[in-house]
Specification:
The complex is a heterodimer of chains A (181) and B (431). Chain A is mainly alpha-helical and 181 residues long. Chain A is built from 5 helices and no strands. Chain A starts with 10 loop residues before the first helix and ends in a 14-residue tail after the last helix.
Chain lengths: 181, 431
Amino acid sequence: MPGCAAPSDGGAACDRATPVKRFDTVLQQGLGLASAIVLFAMMWVTAIDVAGRYLFNKPLPGGFELTELMLAALIYCGLPLVSARRDHIVIDTLESVMSSGLKRVLDIAAEVICAVTLGGVGYLLFRRAARVAEYGDTTAVLKLPLTPVVYLMASMITIAALIHLALIFVPPAPRPSKSSA
Amino acid sequence: MTESMVALAGMLVLSFLRVPIAFSMGLAGFLGLWWMRGVAPSMASVTTMVYETGFQYTLSVVPLFILMGNFVTRAGMSKELYRAAHTFVGHRRGGLAMSTVIACAGFGSICGSSIATAATMTQVAYPSMRSKGYSDELAVGSIAAGGTLGILIPPSTIMVLYGILTETNIGKLFAAGFLPGLLAVVLLCLAVQYICWRDPAAGPRDERAGWPERMSALRDVWAVGVLFAVVMGGIYGGVFTATEGAGVGATGGFMFALFRGALSWKTLLEVLVDSARTTGMLFIILVGALIFSNFVNYTTMPTDLRGFVTEHNLGPMTVMFAICAIYIILGTAMEELSVILLTVPILFPIVIGLGFDPVWFGIIVVVIMQIGLISPPVGMNMFVVKSLLPHVSTMAIFRGVTPFVIAEIILLAILLQFPKISLYLPSLLKL
């Protein structure tokens, strides 16, 4: 089930639903690897671009565009990962005064809201993608087609929406709140 | 004004009912704009935000600085930094706690996260302080407080987010954080002195190190200095932009970890995936905050609030103090990153309308956030230390951080009173 890759997420629930668990593992590892490669490449593109410009007076052609495409891919590949691990930042101030039943109801409501919101955004992005495809938009220098990236963004957002739907059926394991301050 | 108040209230209610803040902000912004302008423009605006935030070159600064921080954390320089600081101040009263603060500052100069700084230093500084008989309170207090320097001393993830959210130059923000960062080190060390003056047994002296030992300890940390000098020097000197500096810094951090033998294929993958995940998490909130702030700017709320301020003849400083008070109250009950992202879109236009400098306000926001990170009951840095040192009681941590919270409030007061401290270095830059 989504979230099973993290050891703190109840193992018992995972054993019951092997196909879902397998899908989750593939999703987390596949997307994790993909975003790792994109991020690593982004780092080198920026470094080579700067080094090329100042040391050899020759910037990397289209480095700017590559970074933009990679950033879009990176952010939206990360979204399903964050959703699957329930890592979205939630204000938990009132948690201590809530009964566990109420919390569960609110959590389900929150998953529905997230799923609907992301579903809507996914739909909007598919519409945008269709338009980009129709016009055949490309980047300015390297003439790289934008269409696949926009479709990737739209798909990832939709996958994240589905993950939130799936999470309705997975009771969350208690874990400390997260932040990146 | 009505639209924005309803949307704001709706957003807060959703957030407190456990909807992730990214979604409550995005949804409130979308529905608010729908109400004011109709569904089609609102949908178009959301599409544009989601789409264009993804493709914005300058935003690659976020993942790259996160990556740099994760590489240097993995490289494990904290031990060397701690030893270097220790050879200089270890023989003084409370010297090990001051070493902790100074080593945190050193670590903060190449890492933009206060949580990473506190977590790394806990592993090195706590055992050392305990073995010399330091009290738990002083040990955990100095680590939690020192960790907050991670976001004040550049690079800083929070400054980057603030810069993006308010379209303030990130290079200038980085320059502005430097002197307040040094001042914070001094004030935190004074807090250590105060604690040891009250209770000399809390932080006994260690042996004095000779100059040869000091020099050898400094040689072990030269790489930190070089990395800071290259990245920050490059950004300050206008050699490259903050975005490019982040790329250079991440590459430097990678080399750093590689040459220290801290990287295998497995750990490299871990660092990258971890950074990617943090990036995803931050960007989703960022997109939500941008959708909301786009809506707020469309309403009359910023003008109305400014009108309220002028109508009641409130001096700029009164407003500033009110804002700080709001932040500190919210900060005790809420996690700091959420506070900043929820409030900056609303407060920033007022602050700028009153004639305050956006860079200076950025520093004030960061320092308020620092205070929030170590003020009970909800402070991320205390949670980090607690999770690494489960045997230390929560009350001991609360008691331990208190003098440091006061030191940081004094820092805030000084920075409010003397904007020059923050703005002097940025004024020298041609960014």
